[in-house]
Amino acid sequence: MTDTSMNDLMKAKMIGRSEIEDLIIVPLFAIVAALILGALTMLATNVDLATIGLSYVALLKGSVGSLSAISETLTAAAPLILAGLGLALGFRAGLFNIGAEGQVLMGGMAAVITGFTFTDLPAAILMPMSLLAGALVGALYASIAGWLRVATGAHEVISTIMLNLIAYRLLDYMLRLPFIQKEGRADPISKSVPDAAELPRLLAFIDPNLRVHAGIFLVLVAVAVVYWLLFRSKLGFEFRASGENPQAARYAGMRSGLIIVLAMASAGALAGLAGANQVLGVLGRATPGFSAGIGFDAIAVALLGRSHPIGVLFAGLLFGALEAGGRQMQVDAGVSIDLIGIIQALIIVFIAAPLLVRAVFPWGFRKGSRQTEGGQ
Amino acid sequence: MTTFTYTLRNLGSATAFLLAMIGPAHAFTACQVTDTGGIDDNSFNQTAWKGVEDAMADFAIDGRFLESQAETDYEANINSLIEGDCDIIITVGFLLGDATQKAARANPDQRFSIVDFAYEPAIPNVLGQVYSTDEAAFLAGYLAAGVSETKILGVFGGINIPPVTIFMDGFVRGVDHYNAQKGASVSVLGWDIDSREGLFTNNFESLDDGRAFAQNLYDEGADIVLPVAGPVGLGSAALADELGTDKLKIIGVDADLYFTDPQKSHVYLTSITKRMDATVRQVIETAMNDTFNGGVLVGSLENGGVDLASFHDLDSAVPQEMKAELDTIREGIIAGTIKVRP
């Protein structure tokens, strides 16, 4: 991006130069740096230059290069964005919630159980009801950590990690209960949800292999709702105020205990929706590994998106694209899928260290802007 | 900065170079989707992939694989191979059963073969490869019962699914057979054949679990452990390596781990081999000469699809008499005079 277009953008948007730098330029360069370091990693593991070129072409092709690639990117991005929004909400309220994984599992489980229990209901009722059950149970599960924080002062980082472990085992246990376990199977796997509970696949009429489903509308609604909640509602103001300065918020008459529980509950509801989105949209049933680490990847998504709903949307799309494209990298170039994990991690490292990016990529940053504004 | 620019320019030219030159296309492409254990698991997925590699060497075909990192990847991985012009798609593992079925129904012209799953009724474009693993595991159970000093054996699995528990069933029945023949009372920890409950790590990835489960069984007195969990068993082997083989021996599964795990090869008493490489290669061959049919391909002791590996370094721990008995039992199983299943 040239300096003149940058200036135009600045005038048009009336937002500060350093915000643009933080929101756009830093992530952009972080991605570039991660891709370059990824290439160097491949070089170091004796992958030749031609294959590296081929693998990045495949990454692009597999993420946005065709209808099915876009469909895969969206499918992978949807749960990351939903859970990421929840985490962003928590971060804004000063809560470092590591428990999205557990909330995803509990929410997904609730959605599956609701789905296969009320098989007689029509889709118009059953599908929203299953989603709601997922959100509700996710919210309740997350509130436990919020309540522990308020009532006992237990730090949410610790309690949510513990709740994740409990969720894993609870899932193993539940999947073997007779009324949940699929008939005729000895391994932990739930009954399948009926078609009426599934999020319909949007492009199945073109090709049954296209997996993108109605969950993407859910994502757009969630982005809008979280934006409104955070920046347009009284509750969101209270979230942000207690996140910025809990003492000041309390002196201003905000009930910090209630705010913590509500913030955790909203975060859990979104993570629960992410779980419901997976089981109702992609898998159709629950198995021990159905969360596939979404809850942890979503932490990276929320950080990359700077805890802003729009940022989370784009960060989630990027991670979805990396996942879908990574698959193509394996198919076309035979490069290990682990490399995608390395690139994702490198992106996070560079985002988390904006000063490093500024030092490595001097272009696009106003000289000394950080020093004069006192840094972050 | 110049280094970065240089690398960037290099990448650009490499890309252009590649686009200009699209590799010479082989006539036939075989593709494989692994389960979450990964292609380099020293056991399950690796053995199946060896079948593709053998076919690549023997028939000059192309081979590709896709690793699944999570269960959510199965369907997506199969789909991306469908677009990749594969002549046959081989999915490895029971857990891919549903995803393979779905893809096979949606793409009736695409040939599939799945390891460890048989569809009932058969799907015309899917060939299931299943194994009478319990026949070889029966031999392993008999052997372990005879070799054990503590008269306690241990077994644990990855996930409680038929292709895993069939090892445990055969092993326990082999031990029972030994007890019945010799009037001994060797016991097996970790699997209750009647209630279908036992020790499971619930994953096929964690080497730590493999170590911890073997440690628990060892603490309970077991001196031979059979881990049926792909790469998880490598963790158990590490424990046996530290304790010494006089205290703990491991029985490998799927491949002959003496060869695939060379650093710890001395801890393996034997391995229950499941020759997925042979069946996968055979399936590719049928697909190439158009004799491919949907249905089931069964590997057994008789056709060499399953077997007991040799004892290698621990050969001296196995008495000559035991070796002779194993040969007799093997013949009995093949002839049907010894029943490995009730």
TrEMBL record, chain A:
<keyword id="KW-0472">Membrane</keyword>
<feature type="transmembrane region" description="Helical">
    <location>
        <begin position="339"/>
        <end position="361"/>
    </location>
</feature>
<dbReference type="Pfam" id="PF02653">
    <property type="entry name" value="BPD_transp_2"/>
</dbReference>
<dbReference type="GO" id="GO:0005886">
    <property type="term" value="C:plasma membrane"/>
</dbReference>
<feature type="transmembrane region" description="Helical">
    <location>
        <begin position="124"/>
        <end position="142"/>
    </location>
</feature>
<feature type="transmembrane region" description="Helical">
    <location>
        <begin position="310"/>
        <end position="327"/>
    </location>
</feature>
<keyword id="KW-1133">Transmembrane helix</keyword>
<dbReference type="GO" id="GO:0022857">
    <property type="term" value="F:transmembrane transporter activity"/>
</dbReference>
<dbReference type="InterPro" id="IPR001851">
    <property type="entry name" value="ABC_transp_permease"/>
</dbReference>
<feature type="transmembrane region" description="Helical">
    <location>
        <begin position="252"/>
        <end position="276"/>
    </location>
</feature>
<protein>
    <submittedName>
        <fullName>Nucleoside ABC transporter membrane protein</fullName>
    </submittedName>
</protein>
<keyword id="KW-1003">Cell membrane</keyword>
<keyword id="KW-0812">Transmembrane</keyword>
<feature type="transmembrane region" description="Helical">
    <location>
        <begin position="154"/>
        <end position="171"/>
    </location>
</feature>
<feature type="transmembrane region" description="Helical">
    <location>
        <begin position="98"/>
        <end position="118"/>
    </location>
</feature>
<feature type="transmembrane region" description="Helical">
    <location>
        <begin position="64"/>
        <end position="91"/>
    </location>
</feature>
<feature type="transmembrane region" description="Helical">
    <location>
        <begin position="210"/>
        <end position="231"/>
    </location>
</feature>
<feature type="transmembrane region" description="Helical">
    <location>
        <begin position="20"/>
        <end position="44"/>
    </location>
</feature>
Automatic annotation (TrEMBL), chain B:
<feature type="domain" description="ABC transporter substrate-binding protein PnrA-like">
    <location>
        <begin position="31"/>
        <end position="340"/>
    </location>
</feature>
<keyword id="KW-0449">Lipoprotein</keyword>
<protein>
    <submittedName>
        <fullName>Nucleoside-binding protein</fullName>
    </submittedName>
</protein>
<keyword id="KW-1003">Cell membrane</keyword>
<dbReference type="InterPro" id="IPR003760">
    <property type="entry name" value="PnrA-like"/>
</dbReference>
<dbReference type="Pfam" id="PF02608">
    <property type="entry name" value="Bmp"/>
</dbReference>
<feature type="signal peptide">
    <location>
        <begin position="1"/>
        <end position="27"/>
    </location>
</feature>
<keyword id="KW-0732">Signal</keyword>
<keyword id="KW-0472">Membrane</keyword>
<dbReference type="InterPro" id="IPR028082">
    <property type="entry name" value="Peripla_BP_I"/>
</dbReference>
<dbReference type="InterPro" id="IPR050957">
    <property type="entry name" value="BMP_lipoprotein"/>
</dbReference>
<comment type="similarity">
    <text>Belongs to the BMP lipoprotein family.</text>
</comment>
<dbReference type="GO" id="GO:0005886">
    <property type="term" value="C:plasma membrane"/>
</dbReference>
